[in-house]
Structure formats: structure tokens, C-alpha cells
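During the second half of the funding period, the structural biology subgroup turned its attention to how the target accommodates small molecules. The most pressing case was nicotinamide-adenine-dinucleotide, which had performed well in the primary screen but for which no bound structure existed. We therefore specified the complex as follows and requested a full 3D prediction, including the ligand pose.
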Amino acid sequence: MKIAVVGTGYVGLVTGTCFSETGNQVTCIDIDQKKVEMLTNGEITIYEPGLEKLFLRNLKEERLVFTTNLEEGIKDAQIVFLALPTPPGEDGSADLRYVLGVADNIGKLLTDYKVIVDKSTVPVGTAEKVHAAIAKNCKVEFDVVSNPEFLREGVAVDDFMKPDRVVIGTSSEKAKKYMSDLYAPFVRSGNPVIFMDERSAELTKYAANSFLATKISFMNEIAQLCERLDADVDMVRRGIGSDERIGKRFLFPGIGYGGSCFPKDVQALVKSSTEVSYDFQILNAVMDVNEKQKLHLLPKIRKFFKGDLKGKHFALWGLAFKPNTDDIREAPALYIIDALLAEGATVSAYDPEAMNNVKSVIGDKIQYAESQYDALTGANALIIATEWNEFRTPDFLKIVSNLKSKVIFDGRNLFEVEAIGELGFHYESIGRPAAV
Ligand code: NAD
């Protein structure tokens, strides 16, 4: 099939690449000229495990091409995906200006039947708005479909190639057929393609992300209780996770969720609820808990340094909002950095993939280390903010020889408390007893 993808960011590039991998002819369109030039020249613009190999293969086969020209990009396409940003507006609602702006332009360009697919995360009712924006200037038949994306950054290629499910919201039989054919190679192992109406599909995406965020905030509150009741959240987690109704996944406490999706999607669902006079109480609490959790290590750090962080130097492992991505949007590490700097401390950070992105946002406010061990040189303590695999079994002798004192504040519970205590570390983590 001939596919166009408008917006070539995390979702668009993965979508375009994976559709080309199954033999489709894909044109990715973006307004960012530099991005399009880089991609055309074979330079990948995001870090996503496994993506580069697929991207290069399909680029070479000329099944995957990039352009800044919307008209040229969609001309031959049978299906046009919108993978555009939907950032939070000032009031927390999803800002639809990119999606509706492009829809408006598409309306002026359509010359034959196409299926326009909304892959961006958008509030209920957006498919109707996209339809109206296109219809304003368009004389030919077209359909608008809601096909929310559930990929997770860090495992996006696997998620896209082998999705747990594909949700397709459409009331058009013709569009349904196009979408079924397109997704058939991705669900050969029997995972479901779930067809529904557009509004339910739009809500499904928000419900999924909000539920997952709720699980995280719930466990973070259990962790808070554990700290006050001398219980160990690791034990509680195992104890509840073995109940199939609860499940083992997404029960890990930490320093809060971040990223480009959970924070904005929970906020947008709360806003959508308010608009229909519904007070979504749980989600308000989920957001509150998360705000506090991002800085949960700070009181522990302050207490250890007797309230005075001025002149203290901290090593920080992890900047990305989660491992295996270079994405730093709403990353808890950035909140920790702000708080430490505000109290007169200095920071030397290391992240395997996200340092350039942080540098482009906060510049030289912190130091960027060559390696996780270089970051430790002369530091009064190590703070861990992202659970990259390479941080899980570090060389503790190197840590001891580089750090000024054996002190670790771990926001991701990477180490066994007892084992690290035996090595002589002062170690504080989330919801577990401290080793002192
Ligand atoms: P992104 O910011 O990484 O990418 C968006 C791209 O759109 C950018 O490259 C930008 O230059 C381009 N763009 C902006 N305006 C444009 C225009 N007028 N024409 C062409 N291109 C334009 O965003 P993302 O993370 O890929 O997210 C896209 C959507 O997918 C959002 O609604 C998001 O909520 C949703 N989503 C994201 C993820 C994720 O993990 N990132 C997962 C599922 C769903």
C-alpha cells in the first residue's frame, strides 16, 4: 500500500519505518527541514533500539522517503497518518492546533479518496473536528479514522511490529478494510484488531495511559507508607503482583512518571472530564502524588547533609525519563537538578543517550560526564534517576574510589539494600529500609 505519515517524531518515524518494513511504500512528512535532511541522508534523529537497522534498510530500498512537502507527500497515498504533537495547552487540555492545521491543509490538497488516520493522542470528538476541517475545502470522498498508538519508547519497534492489540475507531466499512489490510502482517500471531467507534477509540488511549499512571502513583503511595511503617515495598510488590488480577507489571515505585505522554494525557483527561462536568477524582490524586514523588529524594538528601546543600557536589546517573530512550520530556531528573541547583549544589550527570538533549535545554548549568564513573569524581553522593541496565550491576570498587563518601540516593531501587549495606554504603531508596 502507499502510506503517508505526517509528523516524523518518535511515533511518526517508528510508524513510517515499520510500515515500510512490511513492504509498503511510505513517505514521511515533517515541517522540520533539518530533520528531513538528516533522515534523507541516512542519519537517524532519535535513539530507539532496533530502529536504525530497519530505517536504513528501507531507506536503501527506497520504500521509505522523507519530504517537507505535504502536497507531494500525500499525493499518491491511500492512507495518511497524522502523528503530530498534541502538547498540553495552558489549561491542560490537548492543543489540537497541529492536528487541525494539517487537516485543514489536507482538505485543500485531496484529489482522490484517502483514509486520514489520527495516530496522535487526541480528546474525544477530534475525529469529527478533523473531518470538518478537511471537509471545509474538499470535494472528494474521504474517511477519518482514530487509530491511537500504544508503543512505548525504548521498545517502540517491538511494540509496533508485535502490538498487544490494534485499536481502530471508524464507522466506515471502506476505511475498515484499508486498515485491516494494512495491519494484517502485524497481528499474524493472533493479537486482536479491535474495531470500535471513533469516540471510544479516542478515549481508549487516554484510559490506558491514565490507568498505568494510576498504578504508578498507587505504588508510590504504598512506598510512602512502607517508609513510615518500616515495611519493604519490594516485598509488598511481590506479594501483590503474584495475584493475577493485579499482575506483576507496572508495580515498581520510584521518583514518579515522566515522559511526553503520561503527564500530558492524564492532565488532558482530567480537563476533558471537567468540560463535561465530571470531577475525575482519582486522576487528580494521581497527578498530585506524582508531582510530590518527583522530589521525594530531596528531603532524604537534605536530611543527610543536615539541611545544607550549598557547595555540595552530586553525581547524577540517568537523565532520560526512562531507560532506552533519549527522551527527556518531563523527566524527573530535570526536577531534581533544578532543586539541587536552587539550593547551591552542583551536579555532574551521565546518561548513555540523553545528555545532548539535556544540554540543549539547560546548557552548562551542570557538568556532563564521559562515563558513569567519571560523573562520580569528587561527588559527595550519587543520585540515581533512571534505571538504565548499565547502572544495575556497577563496579562498586570504582564507585568507592571515585566518590568522596559512600553515599547513594537511589530513585529507582536498583540495588539490594542488604548487599549494598554490607559494602559500607549509606543507601536510601524508595519505600525500603535505608542502609546506614
Ligand atoms: P514528536 O514531538 O516526537 O514528533 C512530532 C513531529 O511532528 C515533529 O517531528 C514535528 O516537527 C512534526 N510536526 C509538527 N508540526 C508539523 C506539521 N504542521 N507538519 C508536519 N510535521 C509537523 O511527538 P511524538 O512523541 O511522536 O508524539 C506524537 C503524538 O503521538 C502525540 O499526540 C503523542 O501524545 C502521541 N503518542 C506518543 C507516544 C510516545 O511514546 N512518544 C506514544 C503514543 C502516542
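Two results from this model are relevant to the next phase. The radius of gyration is 23 Å. Residues 2-196 form a domain with the Rossmann fold fold (CATH 3.40.50.720).
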